[in-house]
Write a structure and sequence with these properties.
- It is built from 16 helices and 18 strands.
- It has helices spanning 5-16, 23-39, 41-52, 56-82, 119-130, 144-152, 170-177, 190-202, 225-237, 254-272, 288-297, 348-356, 371-380, 416-421, 436-439, 448-457; strands at 85-86, 97-104, 107-111, 134-138, 163-165, 183-187, 207-210, 216-219, 249-252, 302-305, 309-310, 315-316, 319-322, 339-344, 363-367, 385-388, 409-410, 423-430.
- The strands form 4 sheets. It has a 7-stranded mixed sheet with strand order 10-13-14-9-8-15-16, sandwiched between helices. A 6-stranded mixed sheet has the order 5-4-3-6-7-17, with helices on both faces. Strands 1-2-18 form a 3-stranded antiparallel sheet.
- β6 (183-187), α8 (190-202) and β7 (207-210) form a beta-alpha-beta unit.
- The longest helix is centred in the first third of the chain and has 27 residues, at 56-82.
Length: 465
């Protein structure tokens, strides 16, 4: 027996009935999602604390408030976003109506990860609901407490003929992907992203992939080391480093490294105390498997700061590694933990060459008091997102698209970009039913004179010999 066929059939029938298309219905669903976030904020905070030992401040800033902000933005702008978008016309179509209609795809699948299990589940959901789709939500089973809240409580706030949550692990996800969806939105690793994309290809299903990668952070010699250390340490250790846009390694000169190390130690002590393990502001690694992987990375290079770990508590101290070789595991995989390698480069050009020889990252950072240095890094590299003299604060702006490029993903979302991602932009031209005499220029028998006139009407430049 297929465990999903009845659910998917119910949702498809609801979509075909036109139930999700009116603005009133979409707004009601968004309001329901907003009430869920307000009514169960404490429950979500407790689940995040159980799954990731996430501090309340981090849960509020990067999970709940961002999702609520997306709901509020969509509600304020929904009717504007839904309006047909008029386009310019040529002379041949001046008497016609030409526009883009934003239509829902239909039944969409959202597969979300464990590291930000509220944000990365509900922010795409906002776009899917605003665009008028029926949605199957597949939260991560690894963040099991948050998954349980989403599965048991969230459906009470949405129309269950148009929305469903599916629980389970890789086996259930694999079974789900055998079905045809009208759109798939996946957030996770490049390895799993390839599996999801292969499944989507079987049905020619359009897809958004929000993946990860190794995010470079170039630090110029012209910097205040303490300012850089404060920002890099906070963004590296935020959510215990389990962030897809966290700086994954630092490129700097040996001289800057010597200045940066004591500044980083100072920042770690100020943020998390002399014993970071006892700090309420530092979370824990999600599970035993990821802890063991990170503990193995501590053997790369030389530990300059931190390096302590405790398997019973899944604790990894904020750690800085130096003398790291490019071939070591810590430079071959996304770290996803509070470990930061530093590699030395002799110049800006060498740093840019180093970055460009690798897969395009999801995020890239550059620190310098010289604007031209930051602008050079921006101009001469490619990444999904870019931060100059700061970390991933671009994530807080729903006016900016968020997404990867190449190995770090495809597609974008946040704010109106989410609505557009989950909408089919349908090209429409409505012609007058009469005025046939004006159309005769298009018909055979063809002639050079008619061709010239038609090309002029279509605003096409062409030389007739």
């Amino acid at each position: 027996m297929d465990p999903f066929s009845d659910t998917l059939q119910r949702l498809r029938e609801a979509f075909r009935s036109g139930r999700t298309r009116p603005a009133e219905f979409r707004a009601a669903q968004l309001k329901g999602l907003g009430r869920f976030l307000q009514d169960h904020k404490k429950l979500l905070q407790e689940a995040l604390a159980q799954d990731l030992h996430k501090p309340v401040t981090e849960s509020e800033i990067s999970e709940i408030s961002l999702a609520q902000g997306e709901v509020n933005l969509a509600l304020r702008n929904l009717r504007t976003w839904m309006k047909d978008e008029k386009v310019t016309k040529n002379l041949a179509t001046q008497l016609d109506s030409a526009f883009i209609r934003k239509e829902p795809f239909g039944l969409v699948l959202i597969i979300s990860p464990w590291n930000y299990p509220v944000n990365l589940t509900l922010v795409p959901l906002v776009g899917a609901l605003a665009a008028g789709n029926c949605v199957v939500l597949k939260p991560s089973e690894i963040s099991k407490n948050t998954e349980q809240v989403l599965a048991e409580v969230l459906p009470q706030y949405l129309d269950q003929n148009c929305f469903a949550v599916v629980q389970g692990g890789p086996e259930e996800t694999g079974q789900l992907l055998k079905h045809k969806f009208d759109y798939i939105f996946f957030t996770g690793s490049p390895r799993v992203g390839k599996i999801v994309m292969a499944a989507a290809t079987e049905h020619l299903t359009p897809i958004t992939l929000e993946l990860g990668g190794k995010n470079p952070c170039y630090v110029d010699d012209n910097c205040d080391p303490q300012t850089v250390a404060n920002r890099v340490v906070w963004f590296r250790c935020y959510n215990t480093g389990q962030t897809c846009v966290a700086p994954d390694y630092v490129l700097c000169s040996p001289e800057m490294q010597e200045r940066l190390l004591p500044a980083m130690q100072s920042a770690i002590t100020r943020f998390y105390g002399d014993d970071p393990r006892s700090s309420p502001n530092l979370g824990r690694i999600i599970n035993e498997k990821h802890f063991q992987r990170l503990q193995g990375l501590l053997g790369c290079g030389r530990v300059a700061i931190g390096g302590q770990s405790d398997e019973r508590d899944r604790y990894i101290a904020p750690t800085v590694l130096v003398d790291v070789q490019q071939t070591e595991p810590v430079m071959q995989e996304e770290i996803f933990g509070p470990i930061l390698p530093i590699l030395n480069v002799r110049s800006l050009d060498e740093a840019i060459d180093f970055i460009n020889c690798r897969e395009k990252p999801l995020a890239l950072y550059a620190f310098s008091t010289r604007n031209q240095v930051v602008k050079q890094v921006l101009a001469r590299t490619s990444s999904g997102n870019f931060g100059g003299n700061d970390g991933f604060m671009f994530m807080t702006l729903n006016s900016l698209p968020f997404g990867g490029v190449g190995n770090s993903g495809m597609g974008k979302y946040h704010g109106k970009f989410s609505f557009d991602t989950f909408s089919h932009h349908r090209a429409c031209l409505l012609a007058h039913s009469g005025l046939e005499k004006l159309k005769e220029i298009r018909y055979p028998p063809y002639s050079v004179c008619r061709l010239r006139m038609l090309l002029m009407a279509m605003e096409t430049r062409c030389t007739i010999l």
